[in-house]
Amino acid sequence: MAPPPLNQPHEQPQDSLENLEHRLYSRTPPPLRHDEEFMGEERHVRIAPEWTSEAERKESALYSIVATIMPWIKRLFVASIIFFMFTAGIAFFGVWRGENTVSPQNISVDVIGPVGAPAGEEMSVEITIGNENTINLNSVDLLVEFPDGTRKPDNLSLPLLRYRDALGLLPAGKRVSRKLSFVPFGEEGENKKLEITVEYRPKDSNAIFSRKIEHAFMVNSSPVIFTLKLPKEVNADQIFDIAIDLSSNSSATQENLLVKAEYPFGFQFVESEPNPSFGKDTWFLGDLAPKGSRRILVRGRLQATEKEERTFHFSVGTQNTKDERQLGAVFLSEAPSILIQKSFINLELLVNGKEGETFVGRSGQIIRADITWLNNLAAKVANLEITAKLIGDIYSKTSVSSVGGFFDSNTGALLWDQRKIAKFAAVEPGANGTLSFSLGILPVAIDPATFKNPQMTIEVTARGKRLDEQGLYQDVVSSVKKEIKVATVLALSSRLLHDDGPFANQGPIPPQAEQETTYTVVWSLSNASNGVANTKVSAVLPPYVKWVGEMSPPSERVSYSQVGGEIVWNIGEVKAGVGALAPPLEVSFKVALLPSLSQVGTSPVVIGESMARGNDLFTGTEVVSNTRPPLTTGLLGDVGATSKSGIITK
């Protein structure tokens, strides 16, 4: 049979396609085949050889890893069980033998002490350490760290930083106590704390353990009361005063006090009373006794081009032991502010050449006042007039006099205007001048019933008109005032007695050489118009006079120093009017004179010059009494005594 032509298609594929198409589009469903027809069929799925080898390799590697790790996992599991059982045994043993272990919680540290203490006074705390464990503690040490500024009670100049006490063995169930004393310093309201550490070593152990606690307390008062007095407002370039008043607020003497100031920008220091100890801003005041007081008066001016506020800083405390110019423990700090006003017309008032807001004068004194003025404006001031009003009744109106001014006794005012001073009609920019007047203070000290705390005020006011930018006149006003206080007068008298007085004296009158004769010295003190604090009367005995030690009344505080021979009557406060409205203060004491042959025919001195001094509570200044001359044996004040009663005989 011949083969079919090359381009002739195969019949079977075409028939198959036609059959398939016929079945797809036929409306007659194909005949169903039963399951039995498939029973005889067997199908084989052949997996590629490369797949089979890959699976076998993975299965073989995993099995190898598991086979390697599994023994170690079993061993770790067994070890974990053994460790757990061992730990449980140790815990059980620790609980069973718990009475032989040391716990820090069983070491008690109790502190009994105040939670508030005044600065500068001794403070005590009691620290009790208890061993509540069942075994002894060896090498127990107590360590206490004190806060900054703490001082030793027996020497306030020495700082107290830490305390350590080797307590040694502390048996189980026992307690030991230590009482500590120290002097805290700091600002009022400042919180302080003691850091307390107990170090210990358990029995049969070389390890050192510790227990720490803190005891907090607050400085509830300052040993010094610190008061500042300064104006709230000042004019630029105006001299003003800052008064720093210190007074003791403690029953103990405050040693080595230091006051430090920090001035703002633009402040010019003029002077101070007393003078600064270091630079222009640090004053060393030394010791302040109980009830004692001190005052520092600072004068200066502030410069500013416009309305500004400037702040000062003042601090008081103890002197630093390492740097005498710096504060150690700070008691108090203040930061007052002053508002600076730019005045149109600058005014200054000087009394007896002294600047400041307060002048302290004497009873019966003639004082001079000078008013300096300056036109600060860039324009003229028209119709300038300056008045000085005298307020108070301690001056004599008939004593007031001025140059170029008029004093009206009805109003108590002096007036300077263009009727007396022609240039006041139109004062040029930058123009300046000085006006002067004087007045006499009445002898107020002789009448304390009428004049108590005598004072007066001088108020100076400058008024004028300036032409503003709109061509209108505006009033310009500037003012300044000064307070004049009159210091009190302490009057001291002294007498020498032998037969009279509270004591029975021995020895011959007139005195004889090389024989002892005793005398009574009487001091009497009067005070005029103001109260005086820290009052003392002092004198010196010559070397041939002995202090006997008897005094009357015995309650008076009279002391004698063997070195120098000074006798001091420490009076304290003296009220105004003592000696006028009330009897004078008086004290008597006995001394013994043992004259030498070289003094025969003379009247030797029994006691040297006597003088009283104290702090005037009203003026804030120190007042000194009249000086009483030395008392000689020829000045015997007994009835019937003459000058011959004091001449030494053989």
Give the helix/strand layout:
Blueprint lengths: L10 H15 L10 H4 L9 H48 L10 E6 L3 E3 L4 E9 L5 E9 L5 E2 L2 E5 L2 E9 L4 E8 L8 E12 L6 E13 L2 E6 L3 E3 L4 E9 L5 E9 L4 E7 L8 E7 L4 E10 L5 E4 L1 E7 L7 E8 L2 E5 L3 E7 L6 E4 L4 E10 L5 E11 L3 E8 L3 E3 L4 E4 L9 E2 L4 E10 L13 E13 L5 E14 L3 E8 L19 E11 L4 E9 L4 E8 L5 E3 L5 E9 L10 E9 L11 E3 L3 E6 L5 E3 L6 E2 L18
Walk me through the structure.
The chain has three helices and 43 strands. The chain has 650 residues and is mainly beta. The strands form eleven sheets. Strands 23, 25, 27, 28, 29, 31 and 32 form a seven-stranded mixed beta sheet that branches. Strands 2-10-9-4-7 form a five-stranded mixed beta sheet, with no helix packed on it. A hairpin with a 5-residue loop joins strand 41 and strand 42. The protein starts with 10 loop residues before the first helix and ends in an 18-residue tail after the last strand. Mean pLDDT is 84; it is low at 1-13, 35-42 and 47-52.
The helix tally amounts to: 3
Largest sheet: 7 strands, mixed
| Counted beta strands | 43
Name of the CATH homologous superfamily of the largest domain:
Mu homology domain, subdomain B
**What's the architecture of the largest domain, going by CATH?**
Sandwich
Shape: flat
Task: Write down the Rg.
Answer: 51 Å
